[in-house]
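Example record

One chain of 309 residues, shown exactly as stored in the release files.
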Amino acid sequence: MAPGGSACKEVVESHSIIADYGLATMKAETNTTSNASKTTNTVIGKHGISTTNGVHELLECPVCTSLMYPPIHQCPNGHTLCSNCKIRVHNCCPTCRYELGNIRCLALEKVAESLDLPCRYQSLGCHDIFPYYSKLKHEQNCRFRPYNCPYAGSECSVIGDILTLVSHLKDDHKVDMHDGCTFNHRYVKSNPQEVENATWMLTVFNCFGRQFCLHFEAYQLGMAPVYMAFLRFIGDDNEAKKFSYSLEVGANGRKLTWQGVPRSIRDSHRKVRDSQDGLIIHRDLALFFSGGDRQELKLRVTGRIWKEQ
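Predicted structure tokens for this chain:
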């Protein structure tokens, strides 16, 4: 038993990790996207001297395989893991089963300070090199990081680049794909008085060589039942700002119009909806526009997309 150490009776997760002179050997960092090829884990010191993958592997947590950032914890036998996983394993070393305590591996933290690493999205086009402790902050906002699937009808975990997501929406979600920058859509729903939350099928437009998602749904805005239509851009926010769009709905000589800038799919569907950044129609007005006996929603939404000069 290590000095001052005590064996843990139970560990939540079991991991087969090989200890070598008190340092765990880990597998290579898991890719973030489903289709990105593996990148070479080249680590460059501040003096331009390349090191082996071994240093990079020493900085990987043996539990989650992510790179470790201070505080880096170690057990009395020298096995390391990240602070998040220290909680997950109930303060028991996953390698030797001894109690972790509150020992920090200051030597490994110091080694990390001397390293420059490539962005984890190197295979997606980012070729920048960052100091170890700046890498994580960059990756959270890297313009090459993959996008989440914009489909709002279900919780979809697929991520990827723009071409991957467009193919995914077409082949897996069977969304309507249209070419052109103008549209005229009719949304129909029976018994609308009974519907408080509903999402209609997503529509994707190919316009100016880019893709836009048209959302339409019913939800409760406070105590008021409303319908909302809005557009999202499949790409980054700086590109989305180059475009504008308008939406219009009406009947019986009356109409509502909306003009705005499409939101990037970096912003979640719920975030856009909750910010009310789109055309909002209260249910009573929507049924008035629908005509008839107000027992069926028949709402026609027209719109266009244009590029700002």
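Notes: The chain has eight helices and 21 strands.
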